[in-house]
C-alpha cells in the first residue's frame, strides 16, 4: 500500500460540528480517545491501495454524523483478523463506549491503520494487524502459523474499508482468553470460541448484534457457506 503526499482538505465551516462530535465521542469513551492520524483510501485498484493520513477526530465525526460523512468523504482503512484456533473461531463483543459498532460481536483483532504502520511512503498493513493482535488479544505473532488476506469489504454508509486476514494459531481458547485478560485491554467485554461447525447457528442467533462484515470475512475465508 502506498502513502500519497499532501493532506485531506476540511471544508470551511465544518470545524464546530467536528469539534462537537469529537467531544461527544470523548465523553462516551471516558476521555480515552487519541486524535492520532489514520489512513484514508484515496485510490483503490485490484493491485494497489493508496491514500493519505487524516486526523482521527475527522473519522470519528464522520461516524457520528451522516452529513459530515458526506462532506468529508473519508474512506478509513481497518485491518481485521479472523483468528482460527483448534477449538474454534474467536469472537469478541465490543465495549459499549466504542466509537464504531459499539456493543456488537466481531472477529478480533481489528483496528484502524494508523501512522505507526507507515515506513517511508509504504504502509505495512500486516504490521498493523500484528500490533492489534498484541494489544487487543495479547497473542504474540510467534503464535501465528498462517496469515493470508481474504477480502476487502467496503461499507457504503460510513466509507470504512475493512481488509480482512485469516490467522491460524495452535493456541487454544483457554490460552487466548488468559492472554487477553493479562493485557487489561477493555476493547472487548466478552470473548467466545465458536466451533466452525457452529458458525452458521451463532451468526443467526446473533442477528442484529454482530458487525455486518464478520459473516463476509468468514465466507471469504471459506469457513461459512454462502447464504449462511
What's the CATH topology label? Nucleoside Triphosphate Pyrophosphohydrolase
The overall number of domains is 1
Ends apart, CA distance between termini:
32 Å
Q: What are the secondary-structure elements, in order, as H or E?
A: EHEEHHEEEEEEHEEHEHH
* Rg, nearest Å: 17 Å
Structural class: alpha+beta
Distinct helical segment count: 7
Helix content: 25-40%
Q: Which architecture per CATH?
A: Alpha-Beta Complex
Return the average pLDDT rounded to an integer: 92
Description:
The relative contact order is 0.16. Helix content is 30%, strand content 30%. The two termini are 32 Å apart. The chain has one domain: Nucleoside Triphosphate Pyrophosphohydrolase (Alpha-Beta Complex). Strands 4, 5, 6, 7, 10, 11 and 12 form a seven-stranded mixed beta sheet that branches. A three-stranded mixed beta sheet has the order 1-3-2. By secondary structure, the chain is of the alpha+beta class.
